[in-house]
Structure formats: structure tokens, C-alpha cells
Design brief:
The chain contains 4 helices and 4 strands; from the N terminus they run ααβαββαβ. It is elongated, with a radius of gyration of 42 Å.
């Protein structure tokens, strides 16, 4: 039979006190106490010098109360539901046409692509060559739909163009009659 008694206990205790991983270098502190003391002394000196150099006094900084004296007055007629807007007579003598600009492209193939995407839903789409106001001399291909007789029709076309994924802009050309 096998004997399960611990007869070699003294030898196992010796092995437990031995290190598994050891280095050949002697144990030393990573940062010595004198280095830590020196760093604290230097930081304290810098803080003291900054208080004297900048002449700061924490007690002298006090919040001030601000008095707001803004009053908003508006006519009492604005509290009603209806507002009267005066229209100038010059607008009746103007004839306006409304356009919707789909986009301005530097490459003509992109302008043609945009026109082809919208020609089913929008009528009167044209491509005009214009020069950029930001970069003089740069030729752009502007995709424009219209003319529309009133602003409402132009807004309806603008909504249809927006649904297709574009960011259109309203353009108005007015002439005196």
C-alpha cells in the first residue's frame, strides 16, 4: 500500500521561502527619498515665487452684483392675433419670376446626372454655365428649374427637389413693368 503521510514537510517549507523569479541586480528604491524631498522643495519655492511675482491676493477678488436695466416695450397691438403689414406700391409695378437652383457643379457630368435624376418630377430643368463669385474665373454648371409664376409654385418644386436628396436654393428675378 501507499503511505500518504507527510514525511518531507521540513524540506517543503525550505522551498517556499526561496524566490521563484529573481534578478541579479540588488534591490533598490525606484525614486529615492531625497529626490522626492527635492521635488517638493522646488515646487513649494516656485509656488511662493509666483505669489510674490504675480502679487495675487485671493481675498481681493469679490463678485459684484450686476443690475440689469433692460426693458422691452412693444405695442399692445402685437398682443392681438392679427398684424397689419403695409405693402409698398412699388411691388405692384414689379414683375417677378421665381427659379429653384438645384446646385452648381464644377464638372458638367455631375450637372447632367442631377438633371437626369429630377427630370421625371420637375419640368423646365436647364443647365447654365456661370462663373463663381468666390473664385473668379472658375466656370460652374448651374442646374436650375423654372421659371415659376409665383413663389408658391417655386416652393412646391423646391420641396420635391429636397425629397430627392438635394439642397436647393430659391432665386428671384424681378423687373419693373
Amino acid at each position: 500500500m501507499k503511505d500518504f503521510a507527510n514525511r518531507k514537510t521540513a524540506q517543503k517549507v525550505k522551498n517556499k521561502s526561496r524566490r521563484t523569479f529573481s534578478s541579479k541586480r540588488p534591490d533598490a528604491d525606484v525614486i529615492s527619498n531625497s529626490t522626492i524631498f527635492y521635488l517638493l522643495l522646488v515646487s513649494f519655492c516656485l509656488a511662493a515665487m509666483s505669489f510674490f511675482y504675480f502679487k495675487t491676493e485671493i481675498s481681493s477678488i469679490k463678485p459684484e452684483t450686476a443690475a440689469n436695466s433692460v426693458t422691452i416695450n412693444f405695442p399692445t397691438s402685437l398682443m392681438d392675433d392679427s398684424i397689419l403689414i403695409e405693402e409698398e406700391e412699388d411691388q405692384n409695378s414689379l414683375s417677378c419670376k421665381y427659379f429653384v437652383q438645384v446646385g452648381a457643379y464644377g464638372n458638367k457630368k455631375y450637372a447632367i446626372e442631377a438633371k437626369d435624376m429630377l427630370k421625371i418630377d420637375i419640368q423646365n430643368i436647364t443647365i447654365n454655365e456661370v462663373y463663381s463669385s468666390l473664385n473668379p474665373g472658375k466656370l460652374l454648371n448651374s442646374v436650375i428649374s423654372g421659371p415659376y409664376e409665383n413663389r408658391s409654385a417655386a416652393n412646391n418644386a423646391k420641396e420635391k427637389i429636397t425629397i430627392k436628396g438635394f439642397d436647393p436654393r430659391m432665386r428671384t428675378i424681378c423687373k419693373q413693368i
